[in-house]
Specification:
3 helices; alpha+beta; Ribosomal Protein S5, domain 2; 4-stranded mixed beta sheet; 4 strands
């Protein structure tokens, strides 16, 4: 994923959180905010409560890869923040990808095929 298509600054994350448009399942929480850009920007967070840095980075890598492989299936023009929940520690890549796509589908952000 290109750096321009990522949320990195705390200020950007706060804007998405303050929009209060969210949905969750047992593995992930998704916050959404419409942006005026022609592309999506995604941010990924994992709390320190979930484990040490090795565990947190593994979860974050899996979330990023899941998003990267499915980015072309998602409607453009949104800021998306994915937050890992406690059950993510035991989840494998396929479960995380499924949870991510489930949230996107529930918010009607999937493109029609």
């Amino acid at each position: 994923m290109k750096a321009a298509k990522r949320l990195k600054k705390n200020e950007d994350f706060r804007k998405v959180y303050n929009n209060k448009d969210s949905i969750a399942n047992r593995l992930l929480i998704l916050y959404i905010k419409k942006n005026d850009l022609g592309y999506n920007r995604a941010g990924f967070t994992v709390s320190k409560k979930l484990g040490k840095s090795v565990v947190r980075n593994k979860i974050k890598r899996r979330m990023k890869e899941s998003y990267r492989l499915n980015d072309e299936k998602i409607k453009q023009g949104y800021d998306l923040v994915f937050i890992a929940r406690e059950k993510c520690v035991d989840a494998n890549y396929w479960e995380i990808e499924s949870a991510l796509m489930h949230l996107v589908k529930k918010k009607n952000l999937l493109l029609k095929e």
